[in-house]
């Protein structure tokens, strides 16, 4: 089985962070989203992966992923010059894959991974298989249509949803899909929709299976999504591992302190992670907080937040529910409560 990871797009909902940094590399529990995705793909046994990138973010993704060997896969890159939809992105792999493959959106994550679904797809010998998840607001997603309990179609971002079952960002196909993509016309959004492909396959009598995912599903589209995803991953994966220096401090619960980090005169309460070379001094790091590599927190309290690489927080009485970009600086003389979403290299003085 092959894998196609879709990592193009401009991520307008995650601005200002996505203006200078692709959302596919936003750290969750101090690991980029794309790193989690590739690890889950490797668990399937896939070894050949094609990552669809945009011209705007290709350099950043190639720098992080490289040839994929550290994830246990071999990676090649396909460039989608314009965001023309998921189906168009998948079509770029025609001629590269000659067997069944999975499509994984590079800003999504599934609890427990996708290995069980890959096996189910291969065992079923279906033409396609989609994953569904019951959601509160189906209008944000592609939604499944059922007729007497039978899957009969899909609707993209419907105003009046026919069901509450949204398409999760993982699909399984055979190369037969490429012929159907060629038959598509752009939707009202000007994109080639994967839902239209699936509809065509169903109308042609192709076998399209589905599975309902019971665990959590993370769609990292907005700031609050990033914070929620970070919290879930910390809750699931954080363990007590103290490899850095801890001086006159308390480490409470499941906290990871990476090599080279220094925690001095502080309290760190898990689940939380303190990255390599980070410095925590005279501060409180609360639950569900990720402090990136080389970040600095002094005389501050930070909770339920993501501080990216090199971020600095000084003199802030309480910073919570915040996403602070790479090498951004937040400083306060007044010591007040703060909630922020600031991008790379920003400076906020309060």
From TrEMBL:
Superkingdom of this protein's organism: Archaea
Gene3D superfamilies: Hexapeptide repeat proteins, Spore Coat Polysaccharide Biosynthesis Protein SpsA, Chain A
Molecular function GO labels: transferase activity
Keywords on record: Transferase
Domain Nucleotidyl transferase: residue ranges: 3-235
Residue span, Glucose-1-phosphate adenylyltransferase/Bifunctional protein GlmU-like C-terminal hexapeptide domain: 240-318
Record-linked Pfam families: Hexapep_GlmU (PF24894), NTP_transferase (PF00483)
Coiled-coil regions listed in the entry: none
UniProt-listed NCBIfam families: rmlA_long
Protein name: Glucose-1-phosphate thymidylyltransferase (GraD-2)
Species lineage: Archaea, Thermoproteota, Thermoprotei, Thermoproteales, Thermoproteaceae
């Amino acid at each position: 089985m092959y894998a196609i990871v879709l990592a193009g797009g401009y991520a307008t909902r995650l601005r200002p962070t996505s203006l200078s940094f692709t959302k596919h590399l936003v750290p969750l529990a101090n690991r980029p989203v794309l790193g989690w995705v590739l690890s889950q793909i490797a668990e399937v046994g896939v070894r050949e992966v094609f990552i669809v990138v945009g011209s705007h973010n290709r350099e950043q993704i190639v720098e992080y992923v490289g040839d994929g060997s550290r994830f246990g896969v071999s990676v090649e890159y396909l460039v989608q010059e314009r965001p023309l939809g998921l189906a168009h992105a998948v079509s770029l792999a025609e001629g590269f894959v000659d067997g069944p493959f999975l499509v994984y959106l590079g800003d999504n994550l599934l609890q427990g991974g996708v290995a069980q679904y890959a096996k189910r797809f291969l065992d079923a010998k279906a033409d396609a298989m989609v994953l569904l998840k019951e959601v509160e607001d189906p209008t944000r997603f592609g939604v499944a249509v059922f007729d007497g309990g039978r899957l009969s179609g899909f609707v993209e971002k419907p105003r009046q949803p026919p069901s509450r079952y949204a398409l999760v960002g993982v699909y399984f196909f055979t190369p037969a899909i490429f012929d159907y993509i060629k038959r598509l016309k752009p939707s009202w959004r000007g994109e080639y929709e994967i839902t239209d492909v699936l509809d065509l396959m169903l109308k042609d009598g192709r076998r399209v299976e589905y599975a309902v995912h019971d665990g959590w599903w993370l769609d990292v589209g907005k700031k609050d999504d990033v914070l929620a995803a970070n919290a879930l991953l910390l809750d699931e994966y954080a363990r007590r591992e103290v490899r850095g220096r801890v001086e006159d401090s308390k480490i409470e619960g499941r906290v990871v302190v990476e090599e080279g980090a220094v925690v001095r005169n502080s309290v760190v309460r898990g689940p939380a992670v303190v990255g390599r070379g980070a410095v925590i001094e005279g501060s409180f790091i609360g639950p569900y907080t990720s402090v990136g590599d080389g970040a600095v927190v002094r005389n501050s309290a930070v909770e339920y937040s993501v501080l990216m690489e090199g971020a600095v927080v000084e003199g802030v009485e309480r910073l919570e529910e915040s996403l602070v970009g790479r090498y951004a600086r937040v400083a306060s003389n007044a010591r007040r409560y703060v909630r922020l979403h600031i991008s790379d290299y920003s400076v906020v003085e309060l």
